[in-house]
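Backbone shape codes
____________________
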Amino acid sequence: MKIFINIDNNNQKSVEIKEILIKLTEKFNFKIVEDIESCDIIFSIGGDGTFLKTSRLSSQKPIIGINTGTLGYLTEINPENIEKALIDIENGDYYIEERMMIEGEIIKPNGDVIEIPESLNEIAISKNTFGVVRFDAIVNEKLINSYTADGILICTPTGSTAYNLSCGGPIVDPTAEIITLTPIAPHTVINRSLILSDDSMVKIKITELRENTSSYVLYDGKPIEVFSDDIIQIRKSDKITRIIKLDERSFIDTIRENIS
């Protein structure tokens, strides 16, 4: 079985764990490859941020995460369990969980289009330190609401326990196929998320950015600046992330362990 390793090179612990993983694979029927397209599975070493980056690179190859970060909602194993994980994988004692992703584009007033890559957690519209963003939220060509807010999250079920959770959004079973809209600090009495079917087309039109206010599209944390009259269009991606799971822990177990 061929393994590709993606790591957080800025994390010394991740670098050390990579060397341990490479040495351990020599005891088993695994081969480390440098080309991600030629691998059978991918090891992501780092935190959830590294895992999100790996999901965009994965070409839908199965991923397993080794956690050297903090919470590790997405990473399956801790460093001390690497050898056991390799044994389970070699013996076929695992299953693969498929997670939906979202993608989109930014449509400029002159018709130019900037692609937004597929994202496992969320695509957010947010602002800098100053001011607020005014925008219309449109679903399937119908106006849902006009917001004055710090931004809005369009997130997958996997992303429900990320930024969405901090903004008061719902926790969703990560294997579900829905899209959640959660406003960020809206200037309104009602602050509620909206749950949409996975075939929904979401458009966010930036209607006003006041002086000294900048706004950004953040796809799993990676920024693209947007401006007044830009339209951000978001939908379910045809691509998925395939995550290797070694035990039958439910997402409820993960939530309890990480939040309580």
The chain has a mean pLDDT of 93. Residues 101-238 form a domain with the Tumour Suppressor Smad4 fold (CATH 2.60.200.30).
